[in-house]
Amino acid sequence: MTEIEYALNTFYLLVCAALVMWMAAGFTMLEAGLVRARNTVEILTKNVALYAIACLMYFLIGYQLMYPGEGVNAFWPGIGFGVSAEHALADVTAEGSEIAFSSLADFMFQVVFVATAMSIVSGAVAERMKLWAFLVFAVVMTGVIYPWQGYWSWGGGLLSDLGYSDYAGGGIVHMAGAAAALAGVLLLGPRAGKYTPDGRPRAIPGANLPLATLGMFILWMGWFGFNGGSELAVAGIGSANAVAKVFVNTNLAAAAGLVAALLLARFLFGKADLTMALNGALAGLVSITAGPSTPDPGLAVLIGAAGGLLVVVSILGLDRIRIDDPVGAISVHGVCGILGLLVVPLSNDEASLVGQLAGIGLIGGFVFVTSLAVWAALKATIGIRVHPDDERAGLDFAECGMEAYPDFAHGGD
Length: 413
Description:
Elements lengths: L2 H32 L5 H27 L21 E5 L5 E5 H22 L6 H21 L18 H19 L20 H20 L8 H33 L4 H16 L7 H24 L8 H15 L9 H29 L6 H6 L1 H6 L5 H5 L3
Antiparallel strand pairs: 1-2
Helix pairs in contact: 1-2, 1-3, 1-6, 2-3, 2-4, 3-4, 3-5, 4-5, 4-11, 5-10, 5-11, 6-7, 6-8, 7-8, 7-9, 8-9, 8-10, 9-10
């Protein structure tokens, strides 16, 4: 390992971290576009605050919890505080070549993944959750729950010996975020007016579909850092080729997911449903995340298309059983995260179906149960749902004291 290779790997991780950080903007714009105008400022506040909380909590406790060096046992990582001084970290690529990079670059790359997991929760509980209850949960999720389960696989814990393979976090990040979101949604209940007295879902259109579309494209771009950076190196022919393959597979899966969702929506509704198309692209991205480095591009297209079809079915199915998810986050990140984990063994001989099922059960179960406990504690103390009057009027004034579109709402001066 030469100094130039070390420098290139470190720089590559930092650039990819910046791309993943930009996904926070994508989540923010997507959610702001898919909620009603009167809840926009609250959504924006949640997203900027959760990103800052995630950075601080992962710095203070999460990183050492997830990467303790040597855990107490395969389940319990022990505990540590702060980020250690800068030094070189060594690793091995999938091709077996040794790589090295700065420990601080590794922290920077990891911390933006934590914020991604928490952003998934934001959209699912939108338009009826108390802002401060959400932010308290963000402290626990980013500081303890996420890094604890992350230790089991990426940190060398119990899943690392069971044949569980998750290249960029289809389960560790996306399914985990969706499990936390599902726990919150179940305790929170649906938005007022979402369902008729006989249980049929009502459509609640978002206020700004151009903004939601922009958010999807930002997420698509940021995903190149999310998946591509997970190779952890770019110096050397093997690593460079692997990164190029990951980029191509990521892009193709997103494209296939969008087209598949658009076609299925056209078949079911007779119209081109933009929101289903947006979620189809994200579903394709999530579906390829657990294993973007091993499929050939043709298989990546099939995986992305499967995700795009599945997300439409899942969104409609969850609506049918009165699980109200305003942005489709549970379907995109949870259901398609599971799909992505299950298809990894199709192209990766080192992954086993048993190991993937173990990861789904352990990560999903742990995050769901611990999140449910935290949400329940918050519900019993400070409460998690806003007052019905505030929900009807909108959370912007109730929680933040301002509007996102005052001129539009009141006709200007």
